[in-house]
Design brief:
Length: 131
């Protein structure tokens, strides 16, 4: 399998998307690790034990850390996608609004994968965009 260098506009678009994804995830995991009241209230509303917030934050941190490091970015993307799938299932279970809550994890997953795909020529050759 041969790969070529990623064109600069694609590379920078991928970096921006990845940066936005990471910024959101870091904000979210920080709130969970600090166990803010809003997190405890939201966890209770969703039917989750409030003492699990830090564990969820730690799981996010591991996935995002792997996503940031280029050699483990694909593994990190798979892990954060799985984490976001749990968020989608949780919102579906409590009958949250579809577009703003249930699908929000899907939106984040698409941004994470798009950012990685745009900046990684190996992924582009593995999953080519067909015209």
């Amino acid at each position: 399998m041969t790969t070529t260098a990623t064109p600069k506009p694609m590379l920078w678009t991928g970096r921006v998307l990845s940066g936005l994804f990471v910024a959101f995830m870091v904000m979210d995991l920080t709130m969970k690790l600090l166990n803010l009241k809003v997190v405890a209230d939201t966890m209770a509303q969703m039917g989750w034990p409030t003492d699990k917030a830090r564990l969820l934050g730690a799981l996010q941190l591991i996935g995002v850390g792997l996503y940031i490091y280029p050699r483990t970015a694909v593994l990190g993307t798979v892990l954060v996608t799985a984490y976001l799938g749990g968020a989608v299932a949780t919102h579906l279970r409590i009958d949250s609004p579809l577009l703003s809550h249930i699908l929000f994890g899907v939106y984040l997953g698409v941004i994470a994968w798009a950012g990685l795909w745009l900046r990684d020529a190996r992924l582009q050759s593995l999953f080519p965009w067909r015209r």
